[in-house]
Amino acid sequence: MKRNIFFILICFVLMANLAICQEKDVDFSKAYIAQNDGKTTVEINEAQELIYIIFAITDFGKENPNMTKQNTAYFEEVKAHFTPFSNLPIVKKFDQQLRENLTNYFLLAANVYGFKFKNDQLVPTNIYIFPARGVGNYQVKSNPIPAYKNDLEEFARQSGYRAFYKEHQGYYDSLRTAYQEYASIAEQKEWLEKKFDYTINSYRVLTSPLIAGMNATHTFKYKGFKEILLFLPTLREDESWSPKFKKALNTRIIFTEIDHNYVGPLSEKNKKQIDTIFNNRDLWVDTENKSTVHYPSPVKVFDEYLTWGLFILYCYDKFGDDHDLFGQIVENVNDMMVNKKGFPKADEFNAELFRLYKDNNPKDIQSLYKPLLDWCEKEN
Question: Hey, what's the signal peptide range on this chain (predicted)?
Fold first, then answer.
């Protein structure tokens, strides 16, 4: 039976406050910090693209277009080139891992970022040691990649993967250029850090033309240096979109991942009130929508409401003078939240958040928490 994966946006916040945990997760050298401080990097990583290609030719991947983006010429090239090697052991093993738990999609793709190719071998970078330990209750005790290292190297050798990756370097470069032109990450970072008085030192966007609807963000703090890894699809396009709406929509995809890292610490300070309000789950969440299972706690529900609502505030500051464009953005956000993601009060929540922002012109988002939560409490 064909299996379907529902649209997923997952925020991994890997808290590494203890030094011993930090050393096991990452090791940012002085040189690495100096090179990346204040930088935004967009990358289609060679080791990761190998993982996404193997996912794409598994039976599970072929059955699930919400996991692997299949409506592109690139996917057809991947399928034509690599399907003859789909009987190799790693393809079967990854198919089994995906069927056992979809979280393995994130764990395998994230943890391989700690490796790079040296000739035909995968060797540790010694920067990201164990970047993804799990999601929610699903945890792994050790980095899974070393167990698959020989099989991955065999697949790469037999399929000519490294030559394929090199041949498509021009295409990958064009995708990176599109991010720089339309994603406006630096502008998002500037707005968020001004509104939250919270600094992230480095943003790393790890993308692939094979990522469909499954996004993630990992946050690390090491020796005072904060870095975000953003696992995101390539930019979306539609001939019917104006250039401004294209920019806004692609900004939304990134913004609603990034801002979790700013919202989280403030929500933790207000956790008691949030728990009381959003524990009334049937009011705030459409439990018939299967994607809501990824927001199991009151704080996660509130944070999802707020992270999407903040995008409306960001767009008001950036595009507010263009009333038609701003109206399109608000409509898009509310439609996604209510009809796609299963948050039925998003229209009302966003309207109140916007009213508070517009009427009070706050210097920071923290000052909106109390009146916004007071409103939410009355809704209960």
Answer: 1-21
Neighbouring C-alpha atoms within 13 Å toward the C-beta of 349: 28
pTM of the model: 0.82
Domain boundaries, the chain: 8-175, 259-380
Separation CA 139–CA 134 (nearest Å): 4
3-class secondary structure per residue, the chain = CCCCCCCEEEECCCCCCCHHHHHHHECCCHHHHHHHCCEEEEECCHHHHHHHHHHHHCHHHHHCCCCECCCCHHHHHHHHHHHHHCCCHHHHHHHHHHHHCCHHHHHHHHHHHHEEEECCEEEECCCECCCCCEECCEECCCCCHHHHHHHHHHHHHHHCHHHHHHHCHHHHHHHHHHHHHHCCHHHHHHHHHHHHCCCCCEEEEEEECCECCEEEEEEEEECCEEEEEEEEECCCCCCCCCHHHHHHHHHHHHHHHHCHHHHHHHHHHCHHHHHHHHCCHHHHCCCCCHHHHHCCCHHHHHHHHHHHHHHHHHHHHHHCCCHHHHHHHHHHHHHHHHHHHCCCCHHHHHHHHHHHHHHHCCCCCHHHHHHHHHHHHHHC
End-to-end Cα distance, the chain = 41
To 10 degrees, what angle do helices 145-159 and 46-57 make?
Answer: 80
φ/ψ of residue 11, rounded to 5:
-105, 115
- CB proximity list for 312: less than 8 A, separation 6 or greater: 329, 330, 333, 350, 353, 354
Instruction: For 26, list phi and psi in degrees, rounded to 5.
Output: -140, 165
Instruction: Name beta bridge partners: 202.
Output: 39, 227
Query: Could you tell me if 97 and 104 are in contact, meaning their C-beta atoms sit under 8 angstroms apart?
Result: yes
d(CA 357, CA 121): 53
Q: CB neighbours of 109 closer than 8 A, spacing ≥ 6?
A: 48, 51, 52, 55, 231
For 132-187, the pLDDT digits (tens) are: 988 767 889 899 999 999 999 999 999 999 999 999 999 999 999 888 777 788 88
Pairwise CA distance, residues 132 & 24, whole Å: 11
